[in-house]
Design goal:
disordered C terminus; 153 residues; 3-stranded antiparallel sheet; globular
Amino acid sequence: MPKMLFGDFNGHIGDEEGKGIPGNQKALNHNGVRLLEWVEKRNLNIVNRESRMEDGQEVKLTEGLWTRYGHNAQKSIIDYMIVSRDLLHNVVKLQIDDLLEIRIENERINSDHNYLLSLVEVNYHRVEWPEPNKQRWNAIKGSLKICYTKTLN
């Protein structure tokens, strides 16, 4: 079953080729080591570090680098998009807003973390739910409101 996770993992995974993220700070921390072990054990991919070949050229899946600006403008990467290997080929792009350009309803949320936006191509089929679940879903769906002013190209 395909899996997709986004989050603040508080893990510094360094910049070592094949494990870390090019351009990242060199140091790993305990959470970073644990995260790398966890994704490897479960056959997951950290999209922030992935690329693919297109027309003979290596193309990074990620635009932007730093997911957090801490005290004294210290930059770090501790927020990740993680997907199962069977879903990686569906990821078109991960955009990290390290230039602080994205606004939601013309405002920026006051956070030391930057937005991560992804574009993922998926195929789906409609499933009819039994009546009690269908009513619950319609109630949830009706309460959701997604607003944005900038989308991924």
